[in-house]
Amino acid sequence: MATSGSTNFTANANDIIAVALRQCGVLGEGEDMTDEQRSETILPLNMLVKTWQAAGLYLSAVKTAYLFPEVGKNDHKLTNSVVYSRQGDFTGSSDLSIKDQYAYGPLQTYTLTDEWTGTQGDGNWVYYSTTELTEGIQVGDLVGIYNATEATREWGQVTAHEDVSGEYRFQVTGGSGSTIPAAVGDTIYVLTKKAPRPLKILEAYVRQAGQVSDIPIDVVSRNEYDALSTKQSTGIPNQIHYDPQRDSGICSIWPQTDDPRTYITLRIKAPIEDFDAGTDEVDLPQEWLLPLAMNLALLMAPSYGVPAEDFKKIALLADMYYNMVFDFEQETETSVYFQPGY
């Protein structure tokens, strides 16, 4: 007998709520939930997954993001606000250009060498080949353009993309609403989307222009960061402190970078995405679907007057399934360090 060949099973908020309500005896066989039941349950569902964030979901929540710090700046906001709202970060700037960026990868970078840009007489288009952007590019991607002549970098979003006789090109619109031009010799950085405010920064690595390897950065406490020497020192960042705050986390680096091509790779503990609608899928791996449904049932059981004996059964199953997956994550997310003997 053949297997399905697929491993992409998932569930949305409606599915999780329905399983939970059936465990509570609220829904009978073949019975659908009402809109009122859905609206009353999606709030505790969101509260549940947000509480789980504090429990240490490692594999499910650890992601890689990239910070391109602004030259001459220590503190950088890490927020999932749309790119244009970040104009206000640059108090005193004479323009609306975006000088730093915090986003998810994959990070793609290349130097613009296509002379076709000049022959077309249209510097508003950025040209590339599929060997340069192996992950492709699409409207909405975040692009930073390092101007090699002026030694500056500006960020924007891809607003147009096309294939002209086998030549691929795209346009980037900056924070001022104008197209950002690119010339031969400029460096192009491509990211996919804004990253959310991290719960924690677990690891950090810095990469300088022209280098192919990353240098580890120490993630330090507030006291350690405050004790550092003159904050206006410039060079290669080697210390980083993160204050999560409520809306926008503040990532403080030391020393300030003096090269706009320098970027920092962050291993972050990311928040679990919200359920804004019943059709939103669960932002967790498959193995968490059953623990989520059973723990939601446990959370809702008192509201529906579930008998004590049935409540104990739900509690037992909720605890068992949660610990099963939680223990799996702890065992898998381990590191082995080798230290030379003396």
The H-and-E topology, N to C, reads as HHHEEEEHEEEEEEEEHEEEEEHH
Fraction of residues in β-strands: 25-35%
Number of strands: 17
Main sheet record: 9 strands, mixed
Rg, Cα atoms, Å = 24 Å
Distance between the first and last residues' Cα: 59 Å
Oligomer type: single chain
Provide the CATH topology of the largest domain.
Elongation Factor Tu (Ef-tu), domain 3
Low-confidence parts: 82-96, 334-342
Q: Helix segment count?
A: 7
What is the gist of this entry?
The chain is α+β, with helices and mostly antiparallel strands. Helices cover 23% and strands 27% of the residues. The protein folds into three domains: 13-57 and 273-332; 59-66 and 195-269, no CATH class; 81-194, Elongation Factor Tu (Ef-tu), domain 3 (Beta Barrel).
Show the helix and strand layout.
Layout: H1 13-23, H2 35-52, H3 58-61, E1 62-68, E2 75-78, E3 101-104, E4 108-111, H4 116-120, E5 126-128, E6 142-147, E7 152-164, E8 167-174, E9 187-191, E10 193-194, E11 200-207, E12 215-219, H5 222-226, E13 234-235, E14 239-243, E15 249-254, E16 256-257, E17 263-269, H6 289-300, H7 308-332
Helix pairs in contact: 1-6, 2-6, 6-7
